[in-house]
Amino acid sequence: MERNYSSTPELKACDTVVDYGTLGRQVVVHAKMAEGYVQAESTDPLLVNINSRMMGAFIDETRQHIKELEPYQSELLDEYCSNALPKTLKDQKPRNVSWTDWLGRLSSDEKHVEFLKWHVNYIEHQQVDPEVQGEIYRGKQLYKSQVADAIKSGWLHEDAHQAIDKVDDVPVYIGDVFDTLMQERTAYYWGGRLSKIVIAGQIDPGLKQWNEGNVINNISWVLKHELNHAVLGNLGDRWLNEAVTEHIAQALSYDGKPEVIDPSERGKRLEIGRFYTEERELLAAVMQNGQENEVPAQLATLAYSAGQSSPCASYPDFHYAVDKLWSDHEVFGGKDSIVNAVSARAWLLERAYLWQGLSRRNAEVNSVNQTLDDFKNSPQDIAKLFGKYLGEFTLV
Ligand SMILES: [Zn+2]
To answer: 28, 100, 99, 101: which is closest to 58 by C-alpha?
Structure first.
């Protein structure tokens, strides 16, 4: 099919304040580039043809992505479109057709691009909102002072002063539904050279603060956790890293019992969000052996927050203390790294659940629950993995 984009509606310029790493924006940027070619070279029919094809390819790419959405992702797209789209765009879709079908297959290219334009503007709007920027700024300042207090109290490492210095430079973006809620996450941290924190924007603009899903609430609930990832530490194994990351976020937030890891002992009243409860339960079990015997939570938080040059950076104290704790155990006794064996068990189970077709977060939760159950009831299944540690597998 020949495509001609000379009449494509003008795409609003994407400001540098928004992040281009998410599906909606990426496609708009591509489409915008192609459109630029179309307009710039419109006197040369051959170039118009080539550039039109490019634009068509970009649009095919988003359509393909939308066509491949899982059922729960399609539901989110429906929720998003029916709540947030302006009436003029909403009314273009026949009532008996889903948004996935409409945007993935049935809409014209022009309508498809119109949706993407609106989608980018909607996120951009939230990104530059003074209230949103204010919440991010305040959250960062609060985080810095709370980390400083925790260093003074002795449950975060002295090296965390370096982390405080980095906080202001961490970019925080509002993310789109494709990249956050559809991936079963309210936020994520992206490491490496272009490091950034991405927090879910609102898919229902009607939600006021104190409603779940409100963008200000999203920021206040998850910013500390993501800043921990960004500046404070990393313990490698996914379950362990998330458990300690969230424990520290909770302990910083609510005057927060840094010495109590088990979320059920912390009490619901103390917590907002209840994130990574399964991972924290597993960590609590690994750090406890009977009532009177346990590894102090501080060893985990110190190991997490120690800088790379510090002797605790590879957390030998923490591993050593856990192994020592279980040294009399009939199955675990005298073995090397229980933490590594638990990680290997959780990792293998997670792979198996993913293989069965579970979603990412369901696979994580099920594998951690199963590992906790094994740890308590069939430790021999975990002990089989001593000495066969599979390496570090980190998803942040
Ligand atoms: Zn995390």
So the answer is: 28
CA of 395 to the centre of ligand 1 (A): 8
- Determine the Cα–Cα distance for residues 163 and 233; give it in Å rounded to an integer: 9
Report pLDDT digits (tens) over 129-173. 999 999 999 999 999 999 999 999 999 999 999 999 999 999 999
How far does the centroid of ligand 1 lie from the alpha carbon of residue 38, in Å? Answer: 42
pLDDT tens, 350-372? 999 999 999 889 999 999 999 99
Q: What is the Å distance from ligand 1's center to 291 Cα?
A: 29
Q: How far is the CA of 301 from the centre of ligand 1 (A)?
A: 15
Centre of ligand 1 to C-alpha 248, Å, is 11
C-alpha 354 to ligand 1 mean position (Å):
19
Cite the beta strand spans of the chain per DSSP E. Answer: 172-175, 187-190, 196-200
8 A C-beta contact, residue 354 and residue 360: yes
pTM of the predicted structure, to 2 decimals: 0.87
CA-wise closest residue to 339 among 300, 312, 298: 300
Tell me, in angstroms, the distance from the centre of ligand 1 to residue 293's CA.
Answer: 29
Q: Are 16 and 25 in contact (CB under 8 A)?
A: no
